[in-house]
Amino acid sequence: MQRLIVIGGGAAGSAVVGEFLRRGQPGDFDLTWLVGRQAPGRGVAYSTTAEHHLLNVRAANMGLFADDAGAFIAYAQTQGWPVKGLDFVPRAWYGDYLEAVLAREITGARERGLAMRVLSVDAASVRGDDANGYSVRTADGEELVADGVVLAIGALPSVALAEVSESARASHAYTADPWHWPLPRKAPERVVVLGTGLTAVDALQSAARLWPNAQLTAISRHGRLPRSHNAAPGQPYEQQASLIEALRAKPNVAHWLREIRAAIQDEDVEWRSVVDGLRSETQNLWRMLDAHERARFLRHLRWLWESARHRLPQQTTNELARLRTQGRLKVLAAHIRSIDTHASERGQLEVRVQPRGAEGVRSFAADLVIQATGFNISVKATDHPLIRQMESEGIAHPDELDLGLATDAEGRLLRADGTPAHGLRCLGTLLRGSIWECSGLPEIRSLAKAIARDMPGELRQAAASAPARANRPRISSLASAVA
Ligand SMILES: Cc1cc2nc3c(=O)[nH]c(=O)nc-3n(C[C@H](O)[C@H](O)[C@H](O)COP(=O)(O)OP(=O)(O)OC[C@H]3O[C@@H](n4cnc5c(N)ncnc54)[C@H](O)[C@@H]3O)c2cc1C
User: Fold this and answer.
1) Interval between CA 377 and ligand 1 midpoint (Å)
2) Which of 96, 176, 163 is nearest to 368 (CA)?
3) Fewest CB within 10 angstroms: 27, 71, 89, 121, which?
4) Surface-to-core class of residue 317, CB atoms within 10 Å of its CB (0-12 exposed, 13-18 middle, 19+ buried)
5) Tens of pLDDT along 417-476?
6) How far apart are CA 1 and CA 10, in angstroms?
């Protein structure tokens, strides 16, 4: 019987655990799911209880499993929720759905006799290799053995920007974690949010509700909030196939920008349809770029792509527009120069920025600064204990541009010599460097399906071609040998 371990209790962990359970027959495997300290299922995005935090994907496409994209809407209807397929519903509802699906799959699997454990503890270390198997130690000190391990740990913990001084970091007026803020005793009058992407929008909406009198400022290099979805998706772009062909013909980001601009120039063409029509090709296109072109994309185009691709529901766009009209929200295009404790105002921070395109530096005071600059995927700079340990062990490596982990297109971690480890997979945001797009549920669930389908067979093959198990060190002795 194969022993499988999934690490991470968010939507990606849920998708791959669910896929294993749906496929498994008694005796196939013994599955352990390490979900960390939080309740399994919801992860970061769907743990929010705020009704104003909406999904940015339409309900009709949020089913957890790749072969049933409509399952969420079907579930919502059984619950009597007033949801239609085109709606963007509260993420909290989606979290309820995830929990319900997982409970159903786990109960069903156990009733069928599948061995399955859920442990509310972090994985502290992973050691081993395909030939000898893997050993996972939990933060409680339990040692588990596995033939295959899936890392679904989401993005890495946020790290304060380099421009933030030590004293500002240590103060209660700065938070690098956009999901958990210190609640000041006195309502802040000036709140600064660093970033203008989806996470920053969450923070702005929450701050606006918590502190109705606060002045909000969002800052990013380009000062662009995400674009808005239309009420209903537009007609597919008729020339999408030839556009994709043209992009494939020349993997160069300047050429790509020209081609896409030419496509959307026609006023009969809905740009959102063109962008959405590229989604299924994004991973392939990204993989065609060499490191130089990828770096150019990151420098010059990423912000433009992100704001067009990760769009907001219209309700959210309208809310932000209202805040701006009321003068409560300012969006600034600027470079952060420094954030420090204020020289004269106790408890406040001084934010120094250089507005985009201008020479001088502007400075203003803030009672609270929330860093919401997007997913942290820098493996080189992270202090995530498991990633640090796996890197020091030589079984995990940063992607060439430090965009997550070095893996192949199916998430197999690459060894130092560049060959893939069949028994060690990654799923989710840390695949940014390998396939760019693996943060949204549609991509996560497709890869989860592929992992659950392929990994058991690959492990069987690896076992058959490896030296007899009797000649291999037992995993427990392997773990202590490596330790
Ligand atoms: C604000 C926001 C809104 C979003 N909205 C949408 C949307 O509408 N539609 C969509 O498709 N996508 C959306 N996303 C993308 C979202 O990232 C994915 O849909 C999905 O939630 C990612 O799940 P995950 O499991 O990869 O990561 P996470 O949710 O981060 O879960 C990872 C889990 O692993 C745990 N973990 C970490 N280290 C360990 C360890 N050592 N041992 C055990 N556990 C560990 C973490 O504590 C965490 O619980 C949104 C993201 C954000 C930030």
Assistant:
1) 12
2) 176
3) 27
4) middle
5) 999 999 999 999 999 999 999 999 999 999 999 999 999 999 988 888 776 554 444 433
6) 26
Q: Is 154 left (phi over 0), alpha (psi -120 to 50) or beta?
A: left
Q: What is the 334 CA–ligand 1 centroid distance (Å)? A: 29
Nearest Cα to Cα of residue 29 among 125, 121, 113, 120: 113
- Tell me the per-residue pLDDT of 316-348, one tens digit each, with 9 for 90 and over: 999 999 999 999 999 999 999 999 998 777 789
Cα 143 versus chain centre, distance = 28
Alpha carbons 259 and 266: distance in angstroms, whole number: 12
Strand order through the sheet with 123-129: 123-129, 133-138, 143-146
Name residue, tokens 């959102």.
272
Residue by residue, DSSP assigns 430-441 as GGHHHHS--SSH
Q: Compute the distance between CA of residue 441 and CA of residue 46 in angstroms, rounded to an integer.
A: 12
Determine whether the shortest distance from the Cβ of 55 to ligand 1 is under 6 A: yes
Q: What angle do CA 365, 371, 373 make, to 5 degrees?
A: 130
Over residues 280-307, mean pLDDT = 96
Q: Give the phi and the psi of residue 3 in degrees, each rounded to 5.
A: -110, 125
Q: Which amino acid is at 196?
A: T
Residue 471: Cβ within 10 Å count: 7
- Eight-class DSSP state of 1: -
Question: Ligand 1 pocket, 45 CB below 6 A?
Answer: yes
Ligand 1 contact via 152 beta carbon (within 6 Å): yes
Q: How far is the CA of 10 from the centre of ligand 1 (A)?
A: 5
Q: Can you tell me whether residue 114 is helix, strand or coil?
A: coil
Specify the residue for token string 């890392």.
Answer: 151
Take residue 190 and report the two structure tokens written for it: 């000036």
Write b or e for each residue in 128-140: b if 16 or more Cβ atoms lie within 10 A of its Cβ, otherwise e. bbbebbbbbbbee
Distance 439 CA to ligand 1 centre (A): 8
Cα 409 from Cα 66, distance rounded (Å): 17
Query: Residue 248 is encoded by which pair of tokens?
Result: 């494939």
277 within ligand 1 shell (Cβ under 6 A): no
Q: Structure pTM?
A: 0.93
Ligand 1 pocket test target in 7, 88, 439 with most atoms within 8 Å of CB: 439
Which amino acid, residue 12? Answer: A
Atom of ligand 1 nearest to the CA of 15: 25
Helix segments in 363-466, DSSP class H: 385-393, 432-435, 441-465
Point out the ligand 1 atom lying closest to the alpha carbon of residue 442.
11
Span from the CA of 14 to the centroid of ligand 1 (angstroms): 10
- Tokens 């791959």 correspond to what residue? 16
The torsion region of residue 201 among left (phi > 0), alpha (psi -120 to 50) and beta comes to alpha
